[in-house]
């Protein structure tokens, strides 16, 4: 998963996407709030990047809700 994920974010700039991948390797599931705390980015940025990673097939949203969402690695 990590090699595929690194390849999939290769075109992205910034430090947040690689830090999110690292967070996903450390935790079974993450929320935007947890990602924001771990990566020191805003919650808005965390949500935007998680959705981007979901669109690229790297994470999946596991709660099925529009609020209090959690994501896990799509292995």
Which terms summarize this structure?
75 residues, alpha+beta, 4 helices, globular
Written account of the structure:
This protein is α+β, with helices and mostly antiparallel strands and 75 residues long. Helices cover 52% and strands 12% of the residues. It has four helices and three strands. The protein has helices at 2-8, 16-26, 32-39, 43-55; strands at residues 30-31, 59-61, 70-73. The protein has a three-stranded antiparallel sheet. Helix 3 (32-39) packs across helix 4. The radius of gyration is 11 Å and the shape is globular. It starts with a helix and ends with a strand. The relative contact order is 0.21. The model has no long low-confidence stretch (mean pLDDT 95).
Structural class: alpha+beta
Q: What percent of the residues sit in helical stretches (DSSP H or I)? A: 40-55%
Radius of gyration: 11 Å
Termini, distance in Å?
6 Å
Spatial strand arrangement across the major sheet: 1-3-2
* Mean pLDDT across every amino acid position: 95
Number of strands: 3
Order of helices and strands: HHEHHEE
Globally, the shape reads: globular
Largest sheet: 3 strands, antiparallel
The proportion of residues in beta strands is 5-15%
Residue ranges: pLDDT <50 for 5 or more in a row? none
